[in-house]
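#struct-help
A.M.: can someone run this one for me? Single chain, 68 residues.
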Amino acid sequence: MKMLKEKAGETAGKIWNALNGTDGLTAKQLKKATKLTDKDLYLGLGWLLREDKLTVTEAEGDLMVKLN
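D.P.: on it. Structure tokens below:
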């Protein structure tokens, strides 16, 4: 359990760094920018959402992710 929690934190950091300085990215853009698998991307997004660091909306069938 602890290993997955550490991975979630590291993944969240990658996502935060990719979003920092942008007006937001789609999940597809984030995946490309971070080179994360779908599973890891959503693990990190969940972590950041839980910490209230992100706003996620749906746009044209994709998720739009922005830092708060």
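A.M.: thanks! The mean pLDDT is 92.
D.P.: also worth noting: Helices lie at 2-19, 27-34, 38-50.
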